[in-house]
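Handout for the seminar on molecular recognition.
Each group receives one record of this type.
Step one: identify the two inputs.
Step two: read the structure output and locate the region that could contact zinc ion.
Step three: write two sentences on what you found, then compare them with the reference statements printed after the record.
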Amino acid sequence: MIALFFLTITLASSQQDTLAPAARRVLADVRFLADDRQEGRGIGTAGLQRAGAYIRDGFVRAGLRASFQDFTIPADAPAVLHTDLGGKATRNVVAVIPGTSAALRGEIVVVGAHYDHLGLGGFGALDPDSTGRVHNGADDNASGTAALLEIGRLLARSRPARTVVLVAFSGEELGTIGSSYFVHHAVPQPIDSLYAMLNMDMVGRLRNARLLALGAATASEFPALLDSLNTPPRFDLRASGDGWGPSDHAVFFATRHPVLHFFTDLHEDYHRSTDDWDKLNIAGIVQVAQFVANLATALANRPGPLTFVDSPRPQAAAGGSGYGAYLGTIPDMSGGGVSDGVRITGVRAGSPAEQAGLAGGDVITAIGDKHIGNLYDMTDALRSHQAGDTVVIVSRREGVERRATTVLGKRGS
Ligand SMILES: [Zn+2]
């Protein structure tokens, strides 16, 4: 009994000893990346450049081989047509942990997180009224970037059988441009050598231990593998879904390889200037980093291949790009207690939403012929339409269904 007692104390304090420094490091990283001085890590800013150098230095300090992968934002990328961002130079940051097995080191496990954000708002921001204010993107995605740096420290001295590649992507917010560049110029081996890709985008708001592992259906082995690694302190792990989604992993899934997207879910500060570091769950980021590091190690050392499971690309994503047509609703990012539909907290003056008679508290359930179950459906629906399209908006107000017709507008107008 006494021995057990001492053992418990020893374990508890050694866990404290290993967790506390990790939390301190992660906190320092997110505070740097999401500081106002980094200008919201917008494309073309000195702040984004500084963030990239910080990540590279962090990898090097951890003992990793790290380098920049320079590229320019294509001038004809749909998301930059109405901006001055086309042609701007930016960079991914890449660190490589060489595989040690002669048979397997030719295959790569990619762990990625985007480090760019919305700069001073405007395009992509859900609070267009705050254009000009720094959008720090602490959760989106300083959190994933800090987790990536921590994974670098955890794996720096490991000797995986397969090669592990850590990538901090730029250009995600403009339409996964950095990850698209990477898959066409993958290092140290072409993308055919990909074993699996693990994406961390918005992992900074762990609540009730709930962690989403989207893409769990992209390899038959994923659900059991994730489950086996979910040891105490356990996540309430929600593993499901295909590999399509509004972040970098979809680009890798399109090359027909298994992917996972780790995500601590949406909140009311998403894509707003209020996404700041003091709202992050730092211990949660550390826990995600340790979990993803263990998963990357397990994948890098698995003897056999993974069984890839494909699924058709959703139509809206194929036809649309950028943020699509403008409706002018202000979605309730906390969900507002709605399980099916998108609750809005208000509409913008003079917007198509206002013309349709929508108001705060309404729950949107369909746009045109598309059912709206959640915010992703709504983004897809607006992406699949163009300015000038006439659509029927179906909504619910105090339990009563309403239908109204409106003409969608142009973003940024
Ligand atoms: Zn984002």
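Reference statements: The longest strand covers residues 89-97. The chain is about 30% helix and 20% strand.
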